[in-house]
Amino acid sequence: MTTRLSVNVNKIALLRNSRTLDIPGVEHLARIAIDGGAQGITVHPRPDGRHIRAADVPVLHRLARSRGVEYNIEGNPFHQVMDLVRKIRPDQCTLVPDDPAAFTSDHGWNLERDGKRLEPVVAELKALGVRVSLFMDPDESAMQRARSLGADRVELYTEPYARSFGAAGQAEMLARYRAAAQAAQQAGLGINAGHDLNRENLPLFLQSVPNVLEVSIGHALVADALEFGMKESVRLYREAIARGQGA
Hints:
The chain is an alpha/beta fold.
């Protein structure tokens, strides 16, 4: 089993939105990412449209369909993203509890608090034929509850790991992620991962947390693309995944 790489193109859109020109072209660079070996494209539209805009979503969906790669829409189901998902019907919808004013996603779902609200959303997505992933902290005790809501996968929020990388608490943090992944898998959930993963910390994460199905990477990969180009950056991330899996 090889972990799939989904490229989050939000930061490309953020740069484009700083001017009134369509430069850089989000669709164009997503196509280059696919040419480089990306197996998926991820977007995370937010209500303020500060990066991916509603108009980008169907364009990138058509591209993903035409190239045979997966399309993943992330977002808070209670802040308009469901309108886009109903129209597009992506391969996967990752439900994220981000506040509209949040700088970036910074925590997973609290299912004790939010589970009842999420349950009908998950049911609707499944009825639409969309795979459902819940953005979760590495808490092994929450994984059975995630499965009971009908989720297919969880995306482990990896910023805490990224912050611990190379520091004294790294081993303890990785143990938390490994335990959460094992609990999720025992409950019948697939494992995705994302947030602040990069070429340096990704191999160790995949060595320590087995059977990750997909990593969604945007900020670091797009930053690397400024130096290496998009196609080469995707190749480097595919190489990092291979190192993490002993290939």
